[in-house]
Write the structure tokens for this entry.
Amino acid sequence: MSLIKRWMEEQEEQDVFINALKAVIENEEIDNEISLGISKKILDDESIDNLSDKQINVFNKYIDPHLTPECDSDECLGNGKIQMIDLPEAYNQKFELGGLYCEECVNYKIRLQNLMDEDD
């Protein structure tokens, strides 16, 4: 793989991570002040590279689980987890759909709702 392609993929992964973390913060999923401060530091630095070992432990225990939450569907059509890339959209749809759902379940619920709207 070329260096440019690898760099572009790393940038894309970093953007996905940062956007997911922003969505978690904007939706007030992190309620611990220490965890929130570390999250904001990560956003400012656009990286976890500058965190201390203690901050990394807090990140792993209290922040990271919010970045790949479980789908709220009892009969999830995906793998049961919301992927980081889909997290901002899942939060955008949360109140309209009545929960936090993976991409597959969001698409299913939207199609179902559209069908029900057509019947009205």
